[in-house]
Amino acid sequence: PELAEKNAVLACKIKPGRIVKEQLGSIYFQNEKYHQSARVFNELVRKYPQNKKYTFYMGQAIYFDGDENKGLDLMKQAAERDDSCKVMFEEIFENK
User: Fold this and answer.
1) Contact (CB, 8 A) for 21 and 43
2) Which of 16, 62, 55 is nearest to 36 (CA)?
């Protein structure tokens, strides 16, 4: 996991495109660096507001970073506007 993160950070420095940043945000999340993940996805949300998956992923990172209410609100907003986000939301919260 550390090597994947190191390579993703390097890739962002070399070519900081949308896909590379999305991968970095996902790797931060997998490495339980939720605050960093939320920052990356926040940047993507600002640049690509039409992509509701970024809103969902940002909300998920915020949720796991400890602000459950704000994170849940963001995930719900994305789920209401995007079917794939709705599926992810239901998978996460189906038993809650």
Assistant:
1) yes
2) 62
For the record, the structure tokens of 75 come out as: 């995930």
Q: What is the pLDDT of residues 19-37, one digit of tens each?
A: 999 999 999 999 999 999 9
User: What is the pTM for the complete model shown?
Assistant: 0.90
Q: How many residues does the chain have?
A: 96
Q: How far apart are CA 90 and CA 84, in angstroms?
A: 10
Q: Where are the alpha helices (DSSP H) in 15-50?
A: 18-30, 34-47
SS in 3 state form for 41-95? HHHHHHHCCCCHHHHHHHHHHHHHCCCHHHHHHHHHHHHHHCHHHHHHHHHHHCC
Residue 95 pLDDT: 64
